[in-house]
Specification:
Layout: E1 10-11, E2 17-18, E3 24-27, E4 37-38, H1 43-60, E5 74-75, H2 76-87, E6 105-108, H3 111-117, H4 125-139
Parallel strand pairs: 4-6
Antiparallel strand pairs: 1-2, 3-6, 4-5
Length: about 140
């Protein structure tokens, strides 16, 4: 399940946090399953985004600030379920109260990465879980 971003120049949370709308997206509304939603990114997408960034700096001589992210979020329970599906292993967990200052949904706004670098992520949550599980199995 992906969540559509709502842009806000200020993050309403305690302690107060300032968030430029071109760097992040925040929604205060709780997600459907009640667990926090974050913009997870595959390590290879992150690496490829950094390579694109360095290439752009080398080509233009200009620096830039962009957010390398997917712009989509997954809840903690969605991550657990995806990892269970990939690994074939039941993951034990317990639900704890929300920590002070945690926002319900926090996503990257990757618009500038797309516009400045022509970069978009290629991998989804299941790709992330599969890659991690394969790495764990290799070292087991």
């Amino acid at each position: 399940m992906a969540y559509q971003p709502i842009f806000s120049p200020t993050l309403i949370a305690w302690p107060p946090v300032v968030c430029r709308n071109w760097l992040c997206t925040v929604m205060i509304t709780p997600p459907p399953d009640g667990t926090g939603v974050r913009d997870y990114i595959h390590v290879m997408d992150l690496a490829e985004g950094h390579v694109r960034s360095l290439d752009a700096i080398e080509a233009t001589g200009l620096g830039h600030t962009v957010n390398i992210g997917t712009g989509q979020g997954y809840s903690v329970l969605e991550v657990i379920r995806a990892y269970e599906a990939v690994s074939g292993t039941k993951i034990p967990y317990r639900v704890a109260p929300r920590r002070a200052g945690d926002v319900a949904i926090y996503l990257a706004d990757a618009t500038l990465a797309r516009e400045v670098l022509g970069f978009e992520t290629k991998r989804d949550l299941f790709d992330m879980c599969r890659s991690n599980w394969a790495w764990i199995q290799k070292d087991a």
